[in-house]
Structure formats: C-alpha cells, structure tokens
Amino acid sequence: MKAQIQTSETPPVSLAVSGFFDNEQAIEQAMHGCLQRGIPRDLIEVAVSPQAAPRFFGGKTGKPRDSWFSWAGRGALAGLLLTAAVSLILVMLPGYATSRSMAVVQLLGPDIGVIAGAALGALYGMLKPVTVSPQLQRVSQRRDSALMLVHLLSVQEARIIEGVLKAHGASQVEAEPDSLTMTATA
After folding, report:
1. Is the distance from CB of 13 to CB of 180 less than 8 angstroms?
2. Which domain, by its residues, includes 136?
3. Can you tell me where the transmembrane regions are (predicted)?
4. Sign (positive or negative) of CA dihedral 111, 114, 120, 122
5. 78 lies in a domain?
6. Which helix (H) or strand (E) holds 45?
7. If you ran DSSP here, which 8-state letter would residue 41 be given?
8. Phi, psi at 10, each rounded to 5°
9. Residues 90 and 101 sit within 8 Å (Cβ to Cβ)
10. Which of 127, 153, 176 delimits the end of a domain?
11. How many angstroms separate the Cα of 177 from the Cα of each of 20, 37, 126?
12. Do 74 and 160 fall within a single domain?
C-alpha cells in the first residue's frame, strides 16, 4: 500500500483501491462484496481497455464520460441563484410593485433560471472534453482484463476492500491517494 498512515499533523487521506479481473462474474461478485460493506455504487467504477472490451459485458462497453448530469445540477443551482438575485433587486426597486411586474419577477426566479441553467449546464457537460483519471488510465497496462476502481476510502476501509478484491480473484491490487480528492484540493 502506497499511502501513509494518518497522524494528527497530516490531513485525512482518501484512497482509491483498484485491481484487475479476468472475468465479468468475478467483477460482479467483488462489486457485491463492496456494496455489502457499505460502499455506495457511485464510488465504484469498472474500466475495460478497447482490446478487452469484447470479452466483458457482452462487448457493450461505453466510452469514458464525465457526469453531464452533475453539470446540469450545477447549472440549475447557478441559474436559480442568479435569477433569484435579479428578482430580489426588482422587488426592492421603489415603485416596482405593480401586479403585472410581480408576475415577471416570480417567473424569473424559480422557473426560467432553473430550466435555463440546467440546460446550459448539461450542454456544457456534454461538450466538455472528457478527462480520464490517472487511476482509470491504469487499464491500458493490461489488454486482457478489466479494472475495478473503488474511490474515497479511509486507510482502514482500503485494507478491507483490498481483501475483498483479492478474495474475488483480483490481481495487481493497489491502494493509492484518490485522484478525486487530489484534484479537489489542488
């Protein structure tokens, strides 16, 4: 294991554990083992090299993609906050209290802002170039296997998940600082 044990002087370390699997059934069993130990499904990724893709998941592997859905959520929140601020300013203007104008203020805040922000955020997320984490790029080391990656683990959880992956036939199991937290703190 490459990570150091956390002391009172060091910030908390979040680890990612990864390992190679030779068959799809072993991946599913290891994933089930992780889920039984409380690891959320959205923190588990499986990557397959283009050469190994026909052997896994019926050859129906997808290209790496960023989470455009999360960008839609970010856009919706930004749109809501922006139009709510505009609405608040319009309400605060003296003499702007006619009923017809108040309908515009109400429409700008919750409706238009959320919808337009979500649409723009989703569009940005779909058009944004895909960035593959260095840990997922590890899949290119093996042309015959799939890589399973479990994110955001403490040192103790990483040791347990290493055991789970090895128990289900994973090879070259590694625990290293998680790229998700490294980019968030950089």
Report:
1. no
2. 15-56+131-185
3. 75-97, 103-127
4. negative
5. yes
6. strand 44-48
7. G
8. -95, 145
9. yes
10. 127
11. 18, 20, 28
12. no
Domain annotation covers residue 25 = yes
Total structural domains within the chain: 2
Q: How far apart are CA 18 and CA 166, in angstroms?
A: 10
Joined together, the tokens standing for residue 36 give: 């039984």
Output the CA–CA distances (angstroms, integers) from residue 171 to 1, 62, 145, 159, in the order listed: 14, 23, 10, 15
Query: Could you tell me the two tokens for 115?
Result: 């919808």
Return the higher-pLDDT residue of 55 and 185: 55
Among 9-13, 66-70, 79-83, 120-124, the range scoring the smallest mean pLDDT is 9-13
- 3-class secondary structure, 154: coil
Tokens of 131: 């960035």
The type of residue at 18 is S
Indicate if 52 and 139 belong to the same structural domain: yes
Tell me, yes or no, whether 113 and 146 share the same domain.
Answer: no
Model-wide pTM > 0.70: no
Are both 73 and 115 inside the same structural domain? yes
Do 29 and 113 lie in one domain? The reply is no
What the block records as the tokens of 65 is 């993609």
119 with 77, same domain: the answer is yes
Q: What is the pLDDT of residue 185?
A: 45
CB atoms within 10 A of CB 58: 9
Contact present, 155 and 13 (Cβ < 8 Å): yes
**Do 82 and 168 belong together in one domain?**
no
Length of the chain: 186
Structural tokens at position 157: 């959880």
